[in-house]
Amino acid sequence: MKDRFIETRKKSEDLCKPLLVEDYSLLPSEFVSPPKWHLAHTNWFWEEFILTKYLKGYTVYDPHFSYLFNSYYNAVGNRVLRADRGLMTRPSVEEVYRYRQHVSEAMETLLSIKFDKKLLELVEIGINHEQQHQELFLYDIKYIFGNQPTFPFYGSSYGLTEQDIKREFIKIPEGIYTVGHQGEGFSFDNELGVHKVHLSDFEISSQLVTNGEFIGFIENGGYNNFEFWHDEGWHWVNSNKIDAPLYWHKVGGEWFKYDLDGLQKVNFSEPINHISFYEAFAFAEFKAMRLPTEFEWEIASDQFSWGQLWEWTHSAYLPYPNFNKAPDAIGEYNGKFMINTMVLRGASVATPAGHSRKTYRNFFHPNMRWQYCGIRLVKKPDAISTNN
Amino acid sequence: MKDRFIETRKKSEDLCKPLLVEDYSLLPSEFVSPPKWHLAHTNWFWEEFILTKYLKGYTVYDPHFSYLFNSYYNAVGNRVLRADRGLMTRPSVEEVYRYRQHVSEAMETLLSIKFDKKLLELVEIGINHEQQHQELFLYDIKYIFGNQPTFPFYGSSYGLTEQDIKREFIKIPEGIYTVGHQGEGFSFDNELGVHKVHLSDFEISSQLVTNGEFIGFIENGGYNNFEFWHDEGWHWVNSNKIDAPLYWHKVGGEWFKYDLDGLQKVNFSEPINHISFYEAFAFAEFKAMRLPTEFEWEIASDQFSWGQLWEWTHSAYLPYPNFNKAPDAIGEYNGKFMINTMVLRGASVATPAGHSRKTYRNFFHPNMRWQYCGIRLVKKPDAISTNN
Amino acid sequence: MKDRFIETRKKSEDLCKPLLVEDYSLLPSEFVSPPKWHLAHTNWFWEEFILTKYLKGYTVYDPHFSYLFNSYYNAVGNRVLRADRGLMTRPSVEEVYRYRQHVSEAMETLLSIKFDKKLLELVEIGINHEQQHQELFLYDIKYIFGNQPTFPFYGSSYGLTEQDIKREFIKIPEGIYTVGHQGEGFSFDNELGVHKVHLSDFEISSQLVTNGEFIGFIENGGYNNFEFWHDEGWHWVNSNKIDAPLYWHKVGGEWFKYDLDGLQKVNFSEPINHISFYEAFAFAEFKAMRLPTEFEWEIASDQFSWGQLWEWTHSAYLPYPNFNKAPDAIGEYNGKFMINTMVLRGASVATPAGHSRKTYRNFFHPNMRWQYCGIRLVKKPDAISTNN
Amino acid sequence: MKDRFIETRKKSEDLCKPLLVEDYSLLPSEFVSPPKWHLAHTNWFWEEFILTKYLKGYTVYDPHFSYLFNSYYNAVGNRVLRADRGLMTRPSVEEVYRYRQHVSEAMETLLSIKFDKKLLELVEIGINHEQQHQELFLYDIKYIFGNQPTFPFYGSSYGLTEQDIKREFIKIPEGIYTVGHQGEGFSFDNELGVHKVHLSDFEISSQLVTNGEFIGFIENGGYNNFEFWHDEGWHWVNSNKIDAPLYWHKVGGEWFKYDLDGLQKVNFSEPINHISFYEAFAFAEFKAMRLPTEFEWEIASDQFSWGQLWEWTHSAYLPYPNFNKAPDAIGEYNGKFMINTMVLRGASVATPAGHSRKTYRNFFHPNMRWQYCGIRLVKKPDAISTNN
């Protein structure tokens, strides 16, 4: 456990290596957090939920930091409004690294002496929490860089794999299936509560939708035809003047996209990324197909390869039948977001190694698209009958 | 069919009898439509979707009205922005009644001569559409009157029945159940597509939550304790300064509510009305219970009495597995609202007779509460085991 | 005085004769008041400031009305928010007329028996106040009708006179001039305080700018060239997508405008109406001229004809050097608006007879243009020297 | 001139010495610019308006920078929206200093070889422009630091001088006075155009209003009494919940304020700082006095000491009678802001040495108060007569 702790902490800091000090504090939009805040907040989590409770004689690095770096745990007291996170030039980046050093050393001490079960469970949550922020950090730095006129280079390790031209549809028979996390390993509270679901038979694509296919949608007027859209999606498209995926730019008649390695020509064979649920749904309508439910995805996922991009499902993020949120502040982790959000399944190239499993329930509002996310299609019932 | 047509038309106009001309055109909020608009829009629906297509030689009453009184059918052309519906003082109320007379007479002629199946299906939709607006009219006139300092009297026929003090919990066993509309009669496209679901065993209340019980929530600080709320619900409560159900006023230490018969003291035994999904959920959390899913409700509904108030379920409004929206404009009726909305089941005292069935899927955004709606509770799993 | 009172009251009601009941309650924008509100508010003014203080035994018609129909007199207690004025369908139009009857009769009684100076001064203010609302009523009903797709006809008595093609520039010599209201007659507090000003010599047009000239501005790209605009004006043009005066519509390549007699082709020789200060300023820049100050206007006004349209001046609305606002609520009448507003001088065809004088200081925010207002130009200094 | 150039450039950079790299890029509010932007924008000004035109063979440092660091000169092409100025983490602070070095060297070369009059005039403008940004920089860094929970220390050189307890009122006789810039030295276009004004006699305070006096206003309910406020000011107070000057905090019953040397107890004898025009006006009303006009201030200023704080006048910022804005982009400097702004006269402790004169017309919107600004009172006419 101590090794995994050390490794996780190192990874968070390694991700920041391409940054200048200037890049740490920016807040370009309310849903984005500055890199400095990610570093400090994940650190605060260890201090608040573990060190102050389990390490005798631990002294908090700075009592103000609880106020500054709490994210949304109402139970822990007041916190800086989300929109103000980018307003803090102090503490400095250097001091935030000192703060991390302070907490890491104390945690390593603790993990050398204590092994009770409750503590280890919390450490597991802490590691998973910090891993989640590693992924969010990548979304955020992409947004920070991708909205600057100079399109800075971050790194080249987050490319996507080209999809096979030959798409197959995998048939899953009708039946009663068991879903939810069952193994020994770690999972979040929202995926616990194994239960049965009835699924009709369905056919699901072995491949993700590609950029080339999505350009077909654009060029056939997909963004201008209300028939494909939810009423709210149509409003979203028009009031935000959306006409392409996030980070796409048309230059001299050709599509380019900003990626972490700079502005690049769009590769038609790579999977489409950075589309909202509204766009994923509209694309499926355009193709006369549909998105899978999260349970269809979970059952079928053994038969296709996944992990490039989170995949929008047509399931609202709601509690499983026997969901019980954890007591006290940790219980605020997931349940309180179970409204007006949609489930994504899978993982992405930005997901830290060891942080994915087929029962994992990621979720975002249907208009969000700065996260790494793509589309996998399922045939509509009539299509099944006619195509077979 | 002709008789049902005539009866439906008369009901729409009877509902307006308590109004002054002044009351017909007001638009106090974006989600409310003025009475004049309800009368004209339901009328336009017959003209646009039936008369112009099925009645030879029919002349449209006024070609501008299609622009004025279309609601959200993008396929039919431009329309007045929702927020501008209250800006039209002309056509006058008198002219709208003449417009209705014109359409009613033409429809009666048509229904005396034509009987093909497609037409009768459309007439059925037209009747159901006008009935829906009759219910919306009552929500809207309550909102229009309930937000004026003089609290006008509308009528006394919409009171609620007191609930039994002895609440029972009805046990439903685990199993595979069939849901969705199966009968011969009319249904909307969103409830078609009979399919199977697996339900775990559960226990559901025979009664609705009462005003008295909800006052318990208020007095125990329910509106001030973030633990009971979704993150968005908590934000909604605080930014709108919500501290009671809609239409409630505390006067001299006692709770009053505006109802269609004026400002009245709150009756503790009547079911709680006009609460948002956020409030329904928070109340259930406060009680350590939960709301039923729409399928639990549908299966259990044979064993309790319903119809006083629409009942919030904990199901997002999403398409059934084999949902297919109708072609052309009629297809915009339901499917395009299947995002960020929650299902309500049952019916209310404002629902026209003959317009309810247990498979009916009503839906609203989770923050809406001007509709007639209440709460029915289900035990949480641990509560089931311990209480048995 | 009693005769003038009766005549003023009658005029307010005569102005409403072309209205349907439906037209009385609409509030299409925050700066517009519904006709019913004008009738009731002017009435309340008599009741609040005169009858309750001077007529023994007077009983207020309805004590709630003070809350409903106060406009902005903070000293008199709470009032309905401006944006809510359109939300009151009750009291009915009929009742508002009864309310006026009640007050008129009491005032006539009072004016038959009382003649003290303070009372007569207040009656004079009441008459002038009601006259101001008669003019505002015309602005408002034009806005209410002009924003409906049916462009209703109100009346034909508010047309403008064509301007002479031969424009002259009147020369006014440098000197010390006396400005401000000096006569015996009524004036508002903001025009009192006669004082001296020094004016350089200037040349002012004998005519108002015409529609034809303004079309020249439009066709030469005036709305697209930032050079002519204030920074705020440029922002106003772009964020509101302004490309023509209010009520103008381009139909089939020709300019039409809504006027109280319906939609009409624009007459090139009539003075331009319904432009904001921003537009008036930009037009003057385009012509390499300028607007007069309010004192230039006041001194020169004896030498040209005015009264068709209020004329924007390049003077901010600020207190005269020895301004003293009246004590208590009447003192709120003018002084509190002396910030971010610009002075207009003259009068318009919508101004009631007897309500104009050359010292009258009208004022509006620089973005407002639903009032009747036009442009008179003054030569720039270099133009004076070169043209002479 | 070259010496003054070098000195001005050095001062801009010296002002940044107390900053960390983190402090350079923050944009806490739309009216505040990040320090990095000030450094780069003033630099761009030299490059755009002088070097590219006067220095043969000059190569622009980076052609993108014109887009990034233009402020509001529409004539020079597109520019980064004001609200996006804080979104640029690149170019880095280090690079901005290299950019300044590049420009400074080129300017020094130019100033060693060229001396034509037009060039020297532009250099004078460039120096004054950079000085203005030095003062704005201090406002902005105070705002950036003053809104962080840690209240960082910047420096101690910007304190204010205590005011004499014995305030005198200086009498100025009625007369025709000449105002506007007349000397040889530099001035902006908005203060040119010497002209005559007539002033009535008035009495103006020899001292600025103190913190102690302003606390009297607060403690007598000044922020809660609409009588003292403009209608817009009253709205501003209530919608922004204003109850003290900017940067003031009540801690344990005592008033503290953030200043560039940290959080300090309020000194009753120092002049009040950081109040809006609305507050200055309300305070004057509370004292039954008034603010001076800009011309009264200019004429009387020889007889009192000024320069601690800019002083709000009761004059709107409007063009002088014979104002002519400069041709091309430089002409956008002042004239386009002459609407909805009020004039401040004098200078402040944040004003660079040599950048003040009694004809200088500073201006801000009446709600702004992050600039250094105070209040000087004038007696009202009746007070003059009765007190004498």
Automatic annotation (TrEMBL), chains A, B, C, D:
Pathway: Amino-acid biosynthesis; ergothioneine biosynthesis. InterPro entries: CTDL_fold, DinB-like, EgtB, Sulfatase_Mod_Factor_Kinase, SUMF_dom, SUMF_sf. One of its GO terms (biological process) is ergothioneine biosynthetic process. Residues 168-301 form the Sulfatase-modifying factor enzyme-like domain. SUPFAM superfamilies: C-type lectin-like. Keywords: Iron, Oxidoreductase. It comes from the Bacteria. Residues 5-135 form the DinB-like domain. This is Ergothioneine biosynthesis protein EgtB. It comes from Flavobacterium macacae.
